[in-house]
Amino acid sequence: MKSTEIHLLLFIAILAISFLVASASDPDPLQDFCVSANSTTTATVFVNGKTCKDPSTVTVDDFFYSGLNKPGNITSPLGSKVTMVFERQLAGLNTLGVATARLDFAPNGLNPPHEHPRASEVLVVLEGTLYAGFITSNPPDPNDNSRLFAKILYPGDVFVFPRGLIHFQYNVGDTNAVALVSFNSQNPGVVTVAKVEFGSEPPVLAAVLAKAFQIDESLVKFLQSLPWTGNN
Question: Which keywords does this Swiss-Prot/TrEMBL entry list (predicted)?
Fold first, then answer.
């Protein structure tokens, strides 16, 4: 094979690798913003599943949200409330890759085990005392157990939850607790473990969950009969 042919093949290989690497990450925006539009009737271009408003119609209110200074309703059975500010609540977040939320807890209030499939999370405690932690994914050795990383947090403390890992926050104090969280996604997604397992519609076959959790089918059916509500 001639050297020119070798160089050509090498050049093509480099281009192919570069394309694969570029395709493996989100593209950088080529515009100042893409405020998501409520209507899709006349739009033809979608960015991250959303249509963009005409930039000439965008106003400052598209980048503004008010209300995180107000306590959330913590009278639910979980004793907690998550006030989300995702793209759905703040249209200007579209394509920016960030979101935030306020977490309120009554004493013994719980933000139950859940995970965010599209984002890591940073939590900052503002008031009260929280027990927070996350559980690692299945270890390579099936005889080993997943690890729990958990800590008691006080006002001013910061804790990080890696993307996709199950985590929780529990108020272990005698007073209400408040925290702010931030995500590196405009729509982190939320999968609440107990709710999706036992509260799906239609329900998962009881035999499947009984075998998975190593419990009796009658207990599974009882759990499926409960009103599984969220806290957001």
Answer: Apoplast, Disulfide bond, Manganese, Metal-binding, Secreted, Signal
